[in-house]
């Protein structure tokens, strides 16, 4: 069945690992840690893989390189295989399990970090790596298995990714009293485009809201956490999820905006079902995260 695969030379686990690392770093030099000897070795190994498969695996891209379509396909197959072997080795050696978690800055700060840092829920030999990422980066990471789990706001991810709802929250529009003395005045200022606003474009697209999309925000930031920091300085208004409030709410007005009232901000736990097949411990870890995060919201 595999006789043709092993008939020639040039295929090895070390070469496949090199392809995965070079693809992840986007540069042979960066993957090799700027070690000239290793750079030469990595270049030779990729050329040997290309000769073995008779296909181009990398191409020049700006000052670095990127994987070709065939290269990305081989890197993905290799990553799955290497991950399975790594998990098998950990099990044989009775080593701890490590999980890479992708999350937006807001969900990480408000829910994930307090959970992972809680001594009551920490478990021996279970380790986590938290990686800040936007929605697209998380989806790619789950497909490539460079992330084990992700906490995102989108439920409909591309196949075969799966999601489970963690919770749903409304959105509130907060205005410093230093900018508006009443809700009606704040609404008039918003309509007149005279109200400075900090908008968390990295976690909430302004184009989804007609009342705000015609504005030019005074500050475009990446997260609700950053928008709240700008709000707390009392020089800008901001939209925040209902679980996140200004530091001193007495200094602010919560102004009702009709199109925000029907909006639900959802967070989902997402994973690749292939992970569960490669790592027998991952399903239990997924269920533990689901249960613990839902308990923190009640």
Description of the structure:
- The protein has 298 residues and is α/β, with parallel strands linked by helices.
- It folds into 3 domains: 13-84, Arc Repressor Mutant, subunit A (Orthogonal Bundle), CATH 1.10.10.10; 96-168 and 266-296, D-Maltodextrin-Binding Protein, domain 2 (3-Layer(aba) Sandwich), CATH 3.40.190; 171-263, D-Maltodextrin-Binding Protein, domain 2.
- It has helices spanning 13-25, 28-31, 36-53, 69-92, 105-116, 135-144, 183-191, 210-213, 224-232, 258-261, 273-278, 282-296; strands at 58-61, 64-67, 97-103, 126-132, 149-152, 162-169, 171-176, 197-200, 219-221, 237-241, 252-255, 265-271.
- Strands 4-3-5-12-6 form a 5-stranded mixed β-sheet, sandwiched between helices. Strands 9-8-10-7-11 form a 5-stranded mixed β-sheet, with helices on both faces. A two-stranded antiparallel ribbon has the order 1-2.
- Strand 3, helix 5 and strand 4 form a beta-alpha-beta unit.
- Helix 1 (13-25) packs across helix 3 (36-53) and helix 1 (13-25) packs across helix 4 (69-92).
- It is elongated, with a radius of gyration of 24 Å.
């Amino acid at each position: 069945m595999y006789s043709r695969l092993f008939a020639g030379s040039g295929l090895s686990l070390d070469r496949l690992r090199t392809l995965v690392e070079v693809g992840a770093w986007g540069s042979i030099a960066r993957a090799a840690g700027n070690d000239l000897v290793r750079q030469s070795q990595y270049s030779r190994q990729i050329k040997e893989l290309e000769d073995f498969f008779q296909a181009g695996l990398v191409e020049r891209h700006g000052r670095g390189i990127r994987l070709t379509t065939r290269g990305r396909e081989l890197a993905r197959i290799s990553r799955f295989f290497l991950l399975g072997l790594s998990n098998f080795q950990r099990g044989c050696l009775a080593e701890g399990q490590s999980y890479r978690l992708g999350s937006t800055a807001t969900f990480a700060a408000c829910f994930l970090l307090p959970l992972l840092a809680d001594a009551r829920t920490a478990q021996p030999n279970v380790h986590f790596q938290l990686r800040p990422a936007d929605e697209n980066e998380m989806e790619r990471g789950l497909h490539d298995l460079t992330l084990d789990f992700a906490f995102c706001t989108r439920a409909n991810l591309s196949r075969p990714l799966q999601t489970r709802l963690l919770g749903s929250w409304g959105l509130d529009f907060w205005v410093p009293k230093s900018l508006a003395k009443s809700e009606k005045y704040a609404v008039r200022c918003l309509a007149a485009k005279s109200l400075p606003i900090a908008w968390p474009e990295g976690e909430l697209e302004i184009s989804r809201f007609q009342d705000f999309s015609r504005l030019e925000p005074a500050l475009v930031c990446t997260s609700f956490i950053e928008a709240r920091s700008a709000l707390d300085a009392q020089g800008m208004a901001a939209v925040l999820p209902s679980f996140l409030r200004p530091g001193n709410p007495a200094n602010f007005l919560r102004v009702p905006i009709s199109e925000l009232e029907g909006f639900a901000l959802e967070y989902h736990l997402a994973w690749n079902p292939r992970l569960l097949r490669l790592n027998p411990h991952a399903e239990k870890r997924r269920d533990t995260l689901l249960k613990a995060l839902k308990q923190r919201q009640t």
